[in-house]
Amino acid sequence: QVQLVESGGGLVQAGGSLTLSCAASTGTFSNYIMGWFRQAPGKGREFLAGITTNGRGTTYAESVKGRFTISRDGANNMVYLQMNSLKPEDMAVYYCAAGQGGGVYSVYRNRNQYNYWGQGTQVTVSS
Question: CB-based contacts of 90: which residues, under 8 Å, 6+ apart?
Fold first, then answer.
């Protein structure tokens, strides 16, 4: 069982930056592929970024590639999403997710591949 708690959401102006954090409560954090998703009102949950268990591999959605960066800190069971050049269309509830299985080079892009989810944190971008 993994408990995930996101933090760092808030209000930011367009063009600004924000860093989201996700704290994972598990003794086996290094076994989990981690990802970030978001969901805007009236829309489905959208994949943003994923990172391998060892942190050496990442993948991004085209909509955020070059603007967002995912990273993880194995010593502190943390995952981060650095968001730059934010746009009004980035406004959504952002979720951290953990997925089991896969190999050391695996990273997931499908929400169905993730087993555990946080409660979400709201990001609001003003134009």
Answer: 38, 64, 83, 123, 125
What pLDDT does residue 102 have? 80
Single-letter amino acid, residue 109: R
Q: Looking at the DSSP assignment, which residues form a beta bridge with residue 36?
A: 49, 96
Phi-psi region of 80 (alpha: psi -120 to 50; beta: other; left: phi over 0): beta
CB 93 within 8 A of CB 121: yes
Q: How far is CA 63 from CA 1, 38, 75, in A?
A: 31, 12, 30
Residues 79-112: pLDDT tens digits? 999 999 999 999 999 999 999 988 888 999 999 9
**What distances in angstroms separate CA 73 from CA 1, 53, 64, 97, 111, one per listed residue?**
19, 11, 21, 15, 22
Alpha-carbon radius of gyration of the chain: 14
What is the distance between the alpha carbons of residues 112 and 53, in angstroms, rounded to a whole number?
A: 18
Would you say 125 and 86 are in contact if contact means Cβ atoms under 8 Å apart?
Answer: yes
